[in-house]
Structures are given as structure tokens and as C-alpha cells.
Amino acid sequence: MEEKPKNRLELIDRRLLMLDGVEQVGTFDENEISLATNKGFLLLKGEGMHITELNLEQGKLAVQGHIISMHFIEGKSIKGARDRGKNIINRIFK
Q1: For the chain, N or C: smaller number of CB within 10 Å?
Q2: What is the pLDDT of residues 35-68, one digit of tens each?
Q3: In 3-state terms, what secondary structure has residue 51?
Q4: Which of 56, 62, 54, 84 is nearest to 71 (CA)?
Q5: pLDDT for the residue 63
């Protein structure tokens, strides 16, 4: 059985995020970035976020900006992961 590469996440002062194991970037803007990683989906929320490094062959991503939250989501697609994350937030604030 072949083991997937490890998923590594490093967050420095909530201003710089470095992530290994990235397979795909879904949507991104200054406030939200959705990613598919080798261990599932990740939804980043923040302010003034910019992708400063992206190498899908090596699975590397770097993001600068103010990181407010990181949410890991089980799902089959990036769009589904984003929608599920919104549903959770909507239920909290009802």
C-alpha cells in the first residue's frame, strides 16, 4: 500500500502560512482561499491574503496576510467544502 505524502502546515504570527501537500487551489481572494490537500479540504479565512508561492508539482503553497481561521472539511469537492463551511457558519449565527 502506497502512503500519501505528509501534510505540513506552518503558521507564523498569523501573517505567514506555509503548507505542503496542496493538490489544487479552488477559489481565492483577499478574504477566503479554498484548497484541496492530500489529507482533505482546507478553507482559509482572513484579511488581505495573497498567495505568494504556489507549486502544485511539489505541493507547496505560501500565503501572506492576516489569517483569521483555518477550517478542515471532509467532502468530495472544493465547491462542496466551501458550501459546507458557509452552512456551519450560517447555523452558528442563526
Answers
A1: N
A2: 999 989 999 999 999 999 999 999 999 999 999 9
A3: strand
A4: 84
A5: 98
CA 26 vs CA 13, 44, 94: distances in Å: 25, 11, 27
Q: Which three cell numbers stand for residue 25?
A: 487551489
| pTM to 2 decimal places | 0.75
The contacts of residue 91 (CB under 8 Å, 6+ apart) are none
pLDDT at position 1: 52
Other C-beta atoms lying within 10 Å of the C-beta of residue 84 = 16
Q: Hey, which CATH number is domain 8-93, 3.30.1330.50, 3.90.1150.10, 2.60.40.2000, 2.60.120.10?
A: 2.60.40.2000
Residue 36 grid cell: 484541496
Q: Tell me the chain's radius of gyration from C-alpha atoms.
A: 13
76/65 Cα distance (integer angstroms): 28
The pLDDT confidence band at residue 82, using thresholds 50, 70 and 90, is low
